[in-house]
Design brief:
The chain is α/β, with parallel strands linked by helices. The protein is built from 9 helices and 12 strands. 31% of the residues lie in helices and 17% in strands. The strands form 2 sheets. A 7-stranded parallel β-sheet has the order 8-7-6-9-10-11-12. It has a 5-stranded parallel β-sheet with strand order 2-1-3-4-5, covered by helices on one side. It binds NADP nicotinamide-adenine-dinucleotide phosphate (NAP) and glyoxylic acid.
Length: 309
Amino acid sequence: MALILKTDIYRGNAWHDAFARFLPDVPVRDWDNPGKLEDIEYALVWAPEKGVLATFPNLKAIFSVGAGFDHLTVDPDLPEGVPIVRMVEPGLTAGMIEFVVMSALYHHRFMLDYARQQREKVWHEIEQIPTFRRRVGILGLGVLGAACAQKLRGFDFKVAGWSRQPKDYEGIESFHGADGLIPFLNRSDILVCLLPLTPETEGILNAETFAALPQGAALISAGRGGHVVEADLLAALDSGQIGGATLDVFREEPLPPDSAFWTHPRVVVVPHIASMTIAETASEAVAANIRRIQAGQAPLHVVDLKRGY
Ligand code: NAP
Ligand code: GLV
């Protein structure tokens, strides 16, 4: 029995130290030095080379290092019947709360305008809007979206979420399904995307979506780059329909040097860092799930491949 790790940018040593604490009886192997392939029962991976997971004959679960798992399902030889478990862990959730709250406040407090004014040495006060008059809308009210919604609610923003099924979170207005999308957009001054990338959500941030937002709305895109129709976003930014955007994820990453987003005056670009899995907290969650499997229970947060998330 062994757990194999391919954690990429997510600090290798920290994982080893944490698993030694939470799972001392399970040997941990590095991707480049797997030992006997039949020993590998668990894999914790970000973006493994295609076909490699299928070479572990006794694999019982594939744990995604991230909340998303689209980097796994691109593998046409993914072993059939082995559950894929997405990452749900407090460190990742806390990081996303920080990023979304920071970005929402940035747009709410006109920081794009003040950054331009600073460059131009302009001293001009823009009238402040209280949070209770600012409507934030979160596409995707799952683990991350719901946590961000609740924190934003704590600032007194008017918060709503859009999901497949209706939700019942205190103080958060719930919209759901195709019929709920346009009314949800109509009331969202700051739109946050925290959806998974599925065939239904691909390209969901498009010209029609932007047109349904109040004029000058801000966009915070932190789900996946495939949600955004980039040409439509540029057109909406240039027309002023979208007043500003914080973009963490892109169709092509790293963002190519010739992308217009790099230099757009109404855009903040960051390199897919909205939130990162934290080895110390995530290893505890993975260890707990491995214990469930060892006890004959199904792991938590298994991806429903038919549903797409
Ligand atoms: P989750 O718990 O699975 O939540 C997904 C939410 O999206 C759910 O509320 C779900 O609705 C909703 N949804 C899915 N398909 C929908 C559709 N067709 N129409 C309406 N709503 C739909 O996922 P999560 O853990 O919050 O993570 C969300 C995504 O964030 C990940 O998939 C990943 O792409 C992204 N992410 C990005 C970063 C970053 O650094 N940029 C970090 C972590 C995660 P129901 O609740 O009704 O099922
Ligand atoms: C990061 O993008 C993740 O899916 O956790």
